[in-house]
Structure formats: structure tokens, C-alpha cells
Amino acid sequence: MHALRQEILPPSGVEFSASLNLTPATINATHNTTIRHEFAARVLCNVVVARSNLLRIFEVREELAPIHTHTDEERERRSNVCKGTEAVEGEVAMDGQGEGFVNIAKFISQKSTTFPPTVTRFYFVREHRLHGIVTGLEGVKVATSHEDKLDKLLVSFKDAKIALLEWSDSIHGLVAVSIHTYERAPQLMSLDSSMFRTILRVDTLSRCAALLLPKDAIAILPFHQSQAELDAMDQDVLQARDLPYSPSFILDLQSDVDQNMRNVIDFVFLPGFNNPTIAILFQTQETWTGRLKEFKDTVRLVIFTLDIISQNYPIITSVEGLPHDSLSLLACSPALGGVVIITSNSVVYVDQSSRRIALSVNGWSARISDLPSLPLTPEDQLRNIQLEGSRSAFVDDKTIFLILKDGTVYPVEITADGKSVSKLTIASPLAQTAIPAVVNKIGDGYLFLGSTTGSSVLLKTAHVGEEVQEDQKMEFAPATIVQTGNAMDIDDDDDATNGQPDAKGGAKNTRTVIHLSLCDSLPAYGPIADMAFSLARNGDRPVPELVAATGAGSLGGFTLFQRDLPVRTKRRLHPVGGARGMWSLPIRQPIKAGGISYERPVNPYQSDNDTLIISTDANPSPGLSRDVSITTRIPGTTIGAAPFFQRTAILHVMTNAIRVLEPDGTERQIIKDVDGNMPRPKIRACHISDPLVLILREDDSIGLFIETECGRIGRKDMSPMGDKTSRYLAGCFYTDSTGILESNLESPPAVGGANQPVTASQAAGTTGNRSQWLVLVRPQGIMEIWTLPKLVLVFSTPSLATLQTVLVDSQEPPALSLPQDPPRKLEALDIEQILITPIGESSPRPHLLVFLRSGKLTVYELFPAGPTSEVPPVTRASRLKVSFTKILSRVFEIQRSDDSEKSVIAEQKKISRTFVPFVTSPQPGTTFSGVFFTGENPSWIMATNKGGLQLYPSGHSVVHAFTSCSLWESKGDFLLYTDEGPSLLEWVPDFQLDGPLPFRSLPRGRPYSSIVFDPTTSLVIAASSLQAKFASFDEDGNQVWEPDAPNISDPLCDCSALELISPDLWVTMDGYEFATNEYINDVACVTLETASTESGNKDFVVVGTTIDRGEDLAAKGATYIFEIVEVVPDPTISLKRWYKLRLRCRDDAKGPVTAVCGFNGYLVSSMGQKIFVRAFDLDERLVGVAFMDVGVYVTSLQTLKNLLLVGDAVKSVAFIAFQEDPYKLVLLAKDISHVRVTRADFFFADGELSIVTGDEEGIIRVYEYNSQDPESRDGRHLLLCSEFHAQCEYRTSTSIARRAKDDPVIPHAKLICGSIDGSLSSLTPIDEYTFKRLQLLQGQLTRNIQHVAGLNPKAFRIVRNDFVSKPLSKGILDGNLLGHFEGLPITQQDQVTRQIGTEREIILRDWITLGGPW
Fold this sequence. Notes:
By secondary structure, this protein is mainly beta. The longest helix has 17 residues, at 1328-1344.
């Protein structure tokens, strides 16, 4: 049985990060003005983040702070202010007849800034899916960095590889400079990957990089920093002078540095040395708390120098007797010197003379270590802080921020006289932020906290001087990051932390305080612990929703995923026809032009509400409605309509005429589309951009019209474009609101100022002067861009016909039209629709959207063209120095009707596929610019600041017409004509659109370990995971140990509570709390036999638990059976029905109950090494009917009819059958190898059954049961068919039905898996013929396309198995690799498919049938 493994959602969160100047946008990032509307957003730096196989690049951009209005008076006042002259902070309004505002900030106080108020935000640049697992990120400078001022990116991978990457403007992405692999080194020959963690570090001056390898070795990669180093190279390596690095080598620490070096904990490069200098923290003798009497303070610190040329490594400093629980190292600045060691219970500073200064943060430090600590004040003796799981970073030379595992931020101040440190002090906590996985200092004054369990945050750390009274007492006020708008400005009042007072004699002291504020965050939901499908309602429409238990600690909760963009119907508009199109227009009435009520603009593209709707339909509905009054009916078919003449008239395009209408529908002007007295072919499409109109006729000729005089239009001369026989397939206008085209236009009259960039802020401030451009596509596939109104060709490319990855100007003159005799027939690869429009959130960027007749949709993003080595011949005086880079490609299945059929019925059934741009504000302060694609595959195309471009299905089978509509006083409404008729829709609030699936986070303040959906009541049952203090008791009930000091903490243990939750409002209806030492292992909804119902069966909630009793007593467990019962609801609650949990049975067990399930009315549960089948007798007790001894620890139980699948933590998987007469469990087959299985599932399709397992290393294995195969030993052994490395472990999965086109009676099983890195993947069965085609294609893609970082996708998925002669890698296909085929240029697709003996259309059809998350 064959399968395709696809990644539905990428990993969530940030595990590694690096700050560097990667893209050219970071080079010239300086303030150059203080006037608001001339301020250009500047890029401070790039932040590159990674989690598992996902690498993302962001810009940290400083931009103008948005102006918020809070009152109607303020809104009314601003309605009379000219755009760009609004008052900002530090400005005072002049009189109403004056010139707006005058900046008097410099006269107010010296604390006021000379710059406008700004905010710092993340902006998404690019993401890459890698064929490897990232284990480290660093930025480096090489010799070329002194020329281009850009850094390179160094990435390390789990299989001991280092890739050096750089930014390429031509492809707008990362390209590999080199890749260095150490997987064949002797240290990795016997590597146990699950037990070792690599560490990547780079020298502060980028002289070399170091990668920690197993067996106490470090791989060193030297970099060239100047031309002098290259000139000094030996003659035998001159051929490598163009490389930015020298040959790497492996440093064996025991043989080359110190023979006692082993068990490396951490290492860092120290700044301020002439040669690269490394500090290594290692443990000479491994120990733990139970052996402290024998081995204590076993950690050592060694600082040595790397002399790369002479291969000499002298030791500078060696320090012994450090605590055994040392966790990490921090390198101090050259002004201070030395290192800081973070341990579980203390912070230790070590200088270069081996002097140690330790600061205890709890009472355990003195009990487990003999290292002397600083004397503590009475207040410090009460402090009880645990540093396990914490991260730390220097915010200045002498201040460290400790971020604990719960996100609490503690400042630690180093008090020093010169380089002599006297003490360390820790102050009160500043704030509570994200749970940290990595902490990086970004630039000057910013701190980035990356989290794997939730959102990552960017904090600003500002040192501000202030005056305080001597007797003033500051109170601690904790802050939170639940809402990104919350300020985190909390002052630190510790003198040691904040500096010494300047004034000693007066009543006031001046001190420096640290202001910590939240700038921005990267949304994430963290690991997926469990998931289940539920039934949600978007308005009155039921939709499937995936509910996942995500996050950890206080950031735990639920994340709700939907396949389609969630919308809900606000009202039905039956009188509004729209099968052929609808346009909602903001038309101003001329007589009321001065009296329009002002509403604050939320975006520069749409400021007034719509006032009327134009719709067209072959069969118009009657005009009686409570919501809509039809004032005018115009016979004929409408092609397009738009506001014209500054929204004072309507431009109306019909099949044979162009009309200018008054706002009330009366005709002002009509231009019939005729050639002399002969009618022209019908108009099939149009594009309107005030004051221009473009029409395309059925014979592919075009017409261009422009405003000629006040309130009238006329034909525009198109002679510069060629003769009248020119033919075009598609065309559109583009209004350059960002200024990117105008700033990159090279033309002879404007040589002096053509290269001056026009920023988005400037363009928004001069809305009336936006340049307009005409985009046309000729039948041979050549795209041309013409200036307006002079019609000068400035861009031409033939690459669009084959959808090349990058489109650049070919410098060709206007293309000649091909002869049209006989008339040209339409082809599958013809371009049907084209549009250039801004797409984005707060800073939309221009995108090119292309749709082919074959059903292929491609989106390009427009960028300034990077420097190229090839200089094309100049044949035009003017050219656009821009390029289009492909960022999204999608193939749809299109049902084409016979184009020769011209009947009325055929015309009504014809589906219109068009791009409709929209601007919407779903909530105040948020604006999206996007595109809706109509037709039988309706989709939303949009982009966010932090998620890039996404395409979401709309959830409708067909959408004939679409328009954004604000007629009902809402900027977030849309008018759609679907197969259900016309309706007014809006987005469901609170959904985030930063990923491939729309998701909504529900923070609950606690994590959840299990989640189940009860289909009978449509309720969610979830097991919350909490922490409680643990106490151990002896046989007499006396407590064995209790804390004897306030700074000694109790041990903690897991505990759980069961919650009954309504998915309508996500409120907890009822719950059940377990003992403080009892936690839930598994929850299942099981159908059991009962006498309380007529059918004899009823659904119960079954819970399996573990009871911890300390180290000296064996753990026990219990099985609980709950019933969901309906009770009378509280009248004060909005829910009409209310439910509670009723405990029906508790059955104690001698061991932990780790998994539960059910079949045939019986309960199946595991207890220790046994599984039991039991019946629910008299609704009050469990009676055993069968049992079986299985492995060591059962992790998974799955049932199918009377078949049982048992996954074990040691002994892999067992396949068992249950019979009732007599009651018996029969072992059919099992896997004899030792595999740590975390999940086992049945997988079936077309009458075949397989078994799929996942283990702790993220390996997916497919087994088959075949008693006829000799290798199965008469069916006793399961046959291992395939192994696939899925990069991360998954602990939860669910099977859904997948029906093929022929709609079989028994659907296929599609497996959805949720991983601990937050990724969501699917496993889809494939028939044999499709599998063979895609397998050949996978091999071609492995060899014939460039992979990011030069990684090998085939090697990444291969699993090492010493029991087989060759890898079992041919049963599961890699969807991440096959997905690249969809985005390849058409020529390359044809070339690849020709080599494997098939056709491009067949492969794409296969891919369409396998697509879709569920």
C-alpha cells in the first residue's frame, strides 16, 4: 500500500534566531527628516528564525506610529484637516484658518524627541521549507561584506552539516554559497541522534565558526576577512581564493586541548581577543543529585585560544569546582571581560584570573555546591527562583536579563570598578513575557524572545534618566503580552541595577531606569498535544473545525483551524441579481458634495461608504425588498462598472457600448462601439481606472478611452502601440500607489530624478499624483507595460507565457501581432486573466496575478531589479528596472464548456473567472488589500505583515460575482452571488490569516493534554494539565520531607482536571478535579452497553489516569467512566442547553492506565504490561472478560471493528483480534524489532489494510499483515514495508474519510497527524499507477532542481536500518518535494515529465486529486 505524506501546516514557533543585515533594504537605514509625511520607514535589520525544517526571514522596520481617534469630536475635527498635516505627539494645533500645525516640541522640554513617534514592527520577507532540521543560526561577515555591507547566514543541521547562505535579489531568496558536511566524520559513525544536541557558534569578529560534534569534538570553519588574508595564502590553494572560507577541520578537545574535556555543556566565543578565543563549559564526571556525596561540583570552565594557522590551542584560563547543574554560558563584553555561568540555582561570574563570584537565587545552591556565594540580604534570603529552562542575554555591558521558563524577566546587575567585579545583584521582576526558547539582542536597544510554545516577541529596552524623591517607593506592576498593544513600561527601582544617584545633597536623585516595552510579536500556537474534529457554525452554516490543544504553561489553550476562510452571512439579498456581475460603488451626489458626513479613512484606497449597487442578471428578480430598492433597470448585458470623474458619475460598459451615467442612473453620454457604420465584435472584458477605460473584444482587439472634457470621455489615440490589427488576450491598469514603478523608471527626460525612490509613505501623502500604467498580454504570451497617458513601452517580457520563476525586461520593442486568418483558436496555455494590484496588510505591495485557461493560477511579486551581470542590448529609450518573482502557484480543475455553443442557456451556465481586487477593514485599525478569484474554485488571495501571501478557498462551490460593499455602513462586508443566490457576507472575527490555514487562538491559561469531541451532545471534553506541590508520606501518614526554609521549594508533580466545554462560546460547563498526585493519560469517548437506553448502547467518557506516589512506591492508576447529562440551564446564561459530568464508575488499577478505547460495546484499557477488555455491568462497575500480556508500556490503542492495534514504548506494535464466543484476545502478529512507538493507526484503501506507526524520532513506518508471505513466519510477524523520516515526533492523529471521484462504498482513510513542533501533516493513500508516476517524478525533482542550502531531499527522508540491505524508502512519497513541481515553469515541467514518459497535464491532475487538507 502506497501513501503520500504532505505538510498541511509548517512548524509553529521559533527555536533558533539570528539578527543580521541580510537584505539590501538594511543598508541605508537612517533618519533623514523630521516631518511626518516625509518620513520613510527604515529597516533596522533582518531577523531570521527557524523551527524544525522551516526558515523564515523578517525585516525589523521602524515606521510612523498610527494615529488613533477615540472620540466623535476628534473624528469630526480631523475631517477638516488636510491629509498629511495631522498633529502628532509634541505638536499643537494652530487656529482653523492657519496652516495646520507647527512643531513646538523643542520648546516644551529637552526630553521630547526630534523625530515623529514611531513603532517597530516585523514584516515578512521570505520563507523556505528545508530538507533538513535546523539546529543553529548565525550571521557572519566575510571578505565581501566590507564591499556590499551585507552579512551571510550560517545554518547548521541535525545531520552535522553547515550551510553558508546569502541573499539573492534576482530570485528574492537565499542561495547557497557552500555546504560543509561532517556526517562521515569518525565522531558521527555511531551517533545516537536523539541523545545529542549540536551547538553552532560564531566568533564575534566572524573569523571562524564552530559546530559541536559528538565525542567531544568541534568542527572549525575559518572565514576570510580581508584581501590581505587571501594574499597570504599558499600557492597550492590559490584556486580557492574566490571562496570566502578556508578549509575546515575537526578539533578533538581531549587530544588537542585538554585530556579531561568531556561532556560539553556549552561553549561561546569571547570578544576582545586578537585570535578567536573559546570558553568551554564541560563536566569531567557525570553525576546527579543522588550522588552528590561522591561527586559534587564536577563542572569545569576552560578558556583557550584558536591559532588556526599554526594549529596551536593554548589554554588561558581553567576553573574547577563549578556546580554540577550548570546550564549555559554568557560572554561578557570586552569592557568587563570574563564569562557568566547560569546554573539551576545561581548565577556565577568568572573573570580571566579564575576568580568566581556566585549569586544564589534560592536555598538549594548552598546545599548542592561548595562554591561560596555572596552574602544575602534578608530580602534576598526569601527569594526562590528556579533557573531550569531559563534563557539569558546581556542588554548592556553590566545588565543581564534572566527570562525564566514561565516568561518572568529578572534583571541582574554586575557591579564593577573597571574590570574588577565586586558583586552581582538581582532585582524584582520587570515583566512577564513569552516562554523563551532563544533570546537575541537585536541592534541597540531591542531584545528578541523566540518561543516554541507560543508567540515570539520583540522588546525594546531603553535606558532613561529620571528624577525621583529619596523617599519615593516604587511598586511593582507586572505586565503581560496577551495583547500586543499592551505596554510593558515597568521601571526598575534597584539602585544597583539602575546606576548610582547623581545628586546627593538635594531632595531628588537622578537614576537610570530600564524601560521595557513590547514592540511586536510573531504569532504562533506551539506544539500540538492532541486534536479532534468538531462541528462549528459560521453564522448559520455548519463547518468542520479542527480543535487542537496547543501551547504550554500559562500560554496553553486551544487553536481552532478551518480549511476555508471563515465567513458568515449577514443577510440575503434576493432582489439583487448578480449572476453576471455585481459592483458596489461609492458614488457622491453632486448636490450633496459639501455635506457628506465625514468618516475617518482607514486606508488610502477607500474612504467613503458605498451608495449604490449595480448588478446584472439574465433573469432579473422583482425589485421589492426591505433592504434594497431597485431604482433603475437598463436592458442589456453589463460587462463592468466603476465610479468615474472623482466618484461623481458611473462608467458603465456593455457588450456594444460605453456609457456615462448620472448617480441616479440617467444617461449622460453613450459611445457605441462601432467601426464606421459596422458594429464591432462584442466587448468581452473591460478594466476601468479613472480617468481611463480599457475594453477587450471577442476578436482580441482593444479599445482605450480617456476623459476629454469635464464629465465626458473619448477614444484615446493608440498609434504608439502599433496598427489597428494588434491583438491582446488580457489587460489591466495599475495605479502605482507605492511609487515603485515610478522610482525605477529610466527615461531620457528624467535621467536626473528617475532613480529617486518614492516610498509608500510619500505615495500615500500624494494620492492625487499616483502614476498609472497599462499592462497588456499579446496572444503569443508577451506581457507589456506602457506608461500613461503618453503610451511609451517600458517593459516587455516573453517569459510570462511559460510562467518563468523570474520575469525581467527583455528590452524588446513592441511585439508584432500574428495574422488572424483563419481566426486564432483558444489554447490551454493562453492567459485568460491578468491583474496587477497591491496586496498586503499595512504596507501593500504590488503583485501580478495570472490565470491560464488550463486552470493554473500564478502570483508574482514586484521588486526593484537587482544588479545583473548580463547587459541586454538597449533597443528602447525607456525601461522599468523591476522584476517579478513567482511566490505562489496553484492548479485548479476547470470544467470547460463547448465554446462554440452560443445559446442563451449556454450563456447562463457560463462561469466567469475573474480577479476582483478589494480593500476591507474587518476591524478598526486593520486593513487588508487582497484579491478575490471568482469561478468554480473561488478563493481569497491575501497577505499579512507576518505571514506572506496566502490563498484560502471561500467554501462555496461556485461564485459568479463578488464585490466589497459598504452600503450597510460596514467596511468589512462583501456581496457575493453564489450558487445559493446573492448574499451579504463578513469575515468571522478573531481568525488569524498568517498561515496556510485560518486559525483562531483561544488562550485558557493552562495547557491541555487530551481532547475529545462527543458527537451526541456536540461538546468538547478536554483534560487540562496543571502543576501541584507534591508531598510523600510514610506508612503512618507522616510527611517524609517538607521544606525547612522559605527559599526551599516543594517538588512539583503533574495533576489534571477534566473539563466539559461548549464549543459555541468556549465556556466550561462542568469539570472534575482529580487528586493532586493524579494526572490523566488518555481520554476517549466510548460506546458501552447499558440498560438505560432503548438501543442498549450509550456514549460514555472514559479516562485513564496515573497516581504518583514518590520514588519508593510504585505508581498506580485508575479508570473513570463519566456520563454527560443534560440539566436545567441557568436563566442568566445565554446558552439554552446545559450539561454536566456525572461519575458513574471508578475502577482502581495496580499500574498506570495509559490508554483507553472501545469496540463492540466493551472497554479496552491498558494497565502496566497488560491490556484488559471489560464490560460495563449495571452502569456501575467494570467486569473483565479478557486480557493479554503485551509490551512494556502501552502508548497507543486503536480499534477497527474487532481488531486492536497496540503501540508500545519499547516493543513497537502488536496486531490483536478479539472474539466473544468464548471471550478471547488473539495475537495475530507483532513487530519483533525494538521501536519506541508513540502512535499507531489503521490505514486502509481499496480493500487493503496497513498499519502506520510513528516513533520518538519522527519516523513513520508502514506495516502489512500477510500470513501468506514466508517472511511473516506464518503470519506471526508484521512485515515492515516502508520507513520515512517525517522530521518530528507526533503523538496525536485522527482518521478522516476521503472519497475518490468514483465514490466508493467504503471511503479511503486519510490520516491527519499533529506534531510536537506544531506542524500538521497528512498521509493519503495512492493507487499503484499514480504512485509509480509520482515516484519517478520525485526522483527527477531530486536531481534536477536547486534545493535551498544545497540539501539532499532523498537523504533527508532515508531512515537508517541495520537489519535491511537497502533503505525501505519507496512506500511513502514526499509531498514537500513534489509540491515544487506545481511552481516550476511550464517548459521545465514538460522537460521533467518527458523524461519519465508521461505528460504534464496527467501529473497535475494527479496532484489536484491528492490536494486539500481535509
